[in-house]
Inverse folding.
């Protein structure tokens, strides 16, 4: 018989001898809530409120049990979650830390989780005696860098109500050797100061720590020694709310409680610039590749700052309560924010508009976006789990339009294995709603008369029309095609440009008349007939649906010598003129016009009516081309100017 105790011990009893055989101490960090022995196997599974399941095997010489497998999570709600690494290979793991003062790693692609241990004042005493008084307070925030993780500790964490900062090694999956604390915080004046924020430099050599006293200190990660402070005597008059180091170790950006953003030079710890914002700063997140800094303010707004030009580039409004966390997408086009109003919003940085918003039943306290942008990880108040949300933009096209200011967010249930069927049905309904919304809006063919619309055809459908002779010569087979010995059976077709099946015997007998109507001698194709009837739009669409060879056959067939007429050629030029006037399908029409002039150059020179139409078309074509050329030249000039101006000012 096996029994579990309230303090986490297991006892094995011999019922025949009525005595205790062996004991396994500290099986769980809390009471043993459940025991189950597997029938016919020397295995046992135990559970506990510490959010762990353990499998034990009885194979010791004295009949005792040893740990075989372990699945566990946080025993207290996590407070911070971040995806580990900056590449897709390393970015499949989520690192979390929380109120139980432990750091854990969860995989998003496999059912693998790892516990890096608990933060303790004396690690040896905690492991040997399981002294719970040695456990440090909750980890409220951590930062890591993978550059030097194989050489020394690559992560650091701050604890609730403490000025002491601990180091961690994610590569060794354990707590580090250093505990970072300045000597000033041992004095009576600063004894109650608390570390509020930290960040590691891109090289992995230094950790920058901010305190509520206004100090900012720099420590070496390898030796744990203090390497300088920013500001004299303090960096901010109020407390330091957050800070971030850039990607090339040039400067550190810090945000103070007084609402000032300050740039500090890494080399000599001097202040470069101060930018005053409207309100006090609560959170910051730096996207190092783009140089965009998201700043959450106490008035529930978000401001995006360019750390290179040192100015505000976007202001985002929409939340109705305190912001808890912000994060950028890998390409820095989206900014995701969470708030105590139970909403998670997605902001489009180029337009500065909110393009997505959904509500959750429980407020989100921390969010993180995977390096590949396929997952969003969230942790919530009083919840032990880490919730993963998939990016729907990776599975189908999304029409992301700006949301109105009075948009009511839809409440979405948190991901759960127990509610899988409900979530699948809910997801299908959401996809159907999205499709319905997309079907309601039909984009016009021409958005504005001032814009020129392209056909968006592949370049092989219009760019190579003037080089078809060269392409045919290059692709000419070396040997003639060989006739197969026994050709398979195919349904007979009628020879011609259009694919049609041959009529049956019954259809032939019904039309077996020697009197032929006049229209049967018409040699124009459907394209030529539409041109003759003046249906320019349908004729142009028919031409765009064909390949290069089909386009050449249709345009060559306009010549009177091969079945066309002068009227049809003039109608073709009128179609081109209509398309240029409407400013649609610009590049395709240019290609068709060039092929027309190449194939019928001699006829145009000899025919005065067609020549006059070409001269009229020349003026229309030149006006359309000069308009798009001037717009492109102006755009390129402005881009070049802004680029050079930014470099000069920097």
């Amino acid at each position: 018989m096996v029994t579990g105790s309230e303090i986490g011990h297991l006892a094995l009893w011999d019922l025949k001898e009525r005595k205790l055989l062996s004991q396994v101490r500290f099986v769980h960090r809390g009471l043993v809530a459940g025991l189950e022995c597997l029938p016919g196997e020397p295995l046992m599974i135990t559970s506990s409120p510490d959010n762990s399941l353990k499998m034990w095997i009885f194979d010791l010489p004295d009949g005792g049990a040893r740990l075989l497998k372990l699945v566990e999570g946080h025993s207290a709600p996590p407070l911070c979650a971040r995806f580990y690494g900056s590449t897709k290979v390393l970015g499949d793991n989520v690192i979390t830390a929380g109120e139980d003062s432990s750091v854990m790693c969860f995989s998003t692609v496999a059912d693998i989780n790892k516990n890096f241990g608990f933060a303790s004042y004396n690690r040896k005493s905690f492991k040997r005696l399981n002294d719970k008084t040695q456990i440090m307070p909750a980890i409220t925030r951590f930062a890591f860098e993978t550059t030097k993780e194989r050489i020394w500790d690559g992560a650091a964490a701050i604890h609730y109500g403490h000025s002491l900062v601990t180091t961690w090694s994610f590569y060794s999956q354990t707590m580090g050797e250093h505990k970072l604390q300045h000597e000033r915080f041992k004095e009576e004046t600063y004894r109650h100061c608390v570390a509020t924020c930290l960040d590691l430099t891109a090289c992995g050599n230094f950790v920058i720590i901010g305190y509520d006293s206004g100090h900012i200190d720099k420590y070496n990660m390898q030796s744990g020694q203090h390497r300088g402070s920013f500001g004299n005597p303090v960096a901010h008059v109020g407390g330091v709310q957050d800070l971030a180091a850039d990607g090339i170790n040039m400067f550190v950006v810090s945000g103070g409680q007084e609402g000032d953003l300050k740039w500090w030079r890494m080399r000599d710890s001097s202040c470069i610039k101060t930018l005053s914002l409207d309100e006090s700063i609560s959170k910051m997140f730096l996207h190092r590749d783009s140089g965009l800094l998201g700043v959450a303010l106490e008035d529930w707004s978000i401001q995006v700052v360019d750390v290179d030009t040192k100015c505000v580039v976007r202001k985002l409004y929409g939340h109705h309560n305190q912001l808890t966390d912000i994060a950028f997408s890998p390409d820095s086009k989206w900014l995701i924010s969470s708030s105590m109003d139970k909403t998670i919003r997605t902001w489009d940085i180029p337009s500065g508009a909110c393009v997505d918003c959904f509500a959750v039943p429980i407020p989100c306290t921390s969010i993180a976006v995977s390096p590949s942008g396929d997952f969003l990880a969230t942790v919530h108040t009083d919840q032990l789990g880490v919730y993963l949300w998939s990016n729907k933009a990776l599975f189908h096209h999304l029409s992301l339009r700006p949301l109105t200011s009075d948009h009511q967010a839809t409440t979405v249930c948190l991901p759960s294995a127990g509610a899988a069927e409900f979530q699948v049905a809910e997801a299908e309904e959401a996809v159907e709603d999205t499709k319905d919304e997309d079907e309601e809006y039909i984009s016009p063919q021409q958005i504005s008369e001032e814009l020129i619309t392209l056909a968006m055809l592949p370049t092989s459908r219009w760019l190579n029309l003037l080089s078809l002779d060269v392409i045919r010569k290059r692709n000419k087979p070396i040997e003639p095609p060989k006739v197969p010995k026994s050709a398979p059976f195919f349904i007979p077709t009628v020879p011609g440009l259009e694919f049609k099946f041959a009529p049956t015997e019954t259809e032939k007998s019904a039309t077996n008349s020697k009197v032929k109507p006049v229209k049967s001698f018409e040699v124009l194709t459907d394209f030529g007939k539409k041109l003759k009837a003046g249906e320019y739009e349908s004729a142009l669409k028919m031409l765009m649906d064909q390949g290069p060879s089909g386009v050449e056959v249709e345009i060559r067939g306009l010549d009177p010598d091969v079945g066309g007429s002068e009227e049809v050629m003039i109608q073709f030029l009128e179609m081109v003129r209509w398309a240029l006037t409407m400013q649609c399908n610009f590049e395709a029409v240019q290609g068709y016009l060039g092929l027309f002039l190449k194939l019928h150059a001699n006829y145009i020179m000899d025919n005065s009516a067609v020549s006059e139409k070409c001269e009229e078309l020349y003026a229309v074509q030149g006006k359309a081309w000069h308009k798009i050329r001037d717009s492109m030249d102006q755009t390129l000039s402005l881009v070049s100017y802004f680029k050079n101006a930014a470099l000069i000012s920097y």
In short: The longest helix spans residues 608-649. The chain has a mean pLDDT of 84. The CA atoms of residues 79 and 98 lie 5 Å apart. The longest strand covers residues 66-72.
